[in-house]
């Protein structure tokens, strides 16, 4: 892959050895809310599932899914409370390597567009996945609502991608072309967002058409009233 070794999930898991699952839990926790967005989230979950299927990681699949879900949830909770305490004050330097103001602006727009369900959709969007919780905390989102939606996202995201990796773990073609498979996974993980954008545009067009139709019907009545 055209990235540092630590961004390559296969290299990272092999480097961690017996600590592969625990290292993965830490990475997921950090990426889901501790202000460090450039980590292999989706691809690492997929690789963990694949390694469990191959026996390289000797942990029951159900236990790995539970632990990864907890790590993803707690990462978001940490990000939420960082946002409540610090707000967006850390995002002031446009030349910063990670905490760029544009990241928080883009995430805020994302949140405004999709509301609470953004916490689920954002799981599948790198960078936004990290900063969505900061925005929720800074905006003083109701904690109960936040915990509900971020919990739903964690349950869908972490076990879902891990189970996919496990299901394909014994497919030799996947092992022979792991780099390509991981790149494809990242692209596929963006599909929920693509679908949501398309649906949002259709709803916007439908609403605009409805408003236009209503305006046309109202115009003759207005004219008749003048006469």
From TrEMBL:
Mainly resides where?
A: membrane
Gene Ontology CC annotations of this record? plasma membrane
Task: Alphabetically list the UniProt keywords.
Answer: Cell membrane, Membrane, Transmembrane, Transmembrane helix
Range of residues in the leader sequence: none
From the Swiss-Prot or TrEMBL record, state where the protein is found: Cell membrane
Q: Which residue spans traverse the membrane?
A: 20-53, 60-82, 120-139, 146-168, 180-199
Protein's UniProt keywords contain Membrane: yes
Q: Which domain of life is it from?
A: Bacteria
Q: Which Pfam families match?
A: VTT_dom
Q: How does this protein lie in the membrane? A: Multi-pass membrane protein
Q: Where is the VTT domain?
A: 39-166
Entries under PANTHER family matching the protein: INNER MEMBRANE PROTEIN DEDA-RELATED (PTHR30353), TRANSMEMBRANE PROTEIN (PTHR30353:SF0)
For this chain, the family text in UniProt reads:
Belongs to the DedA family.
* Name recorded for this polypeptide: DedA family protein
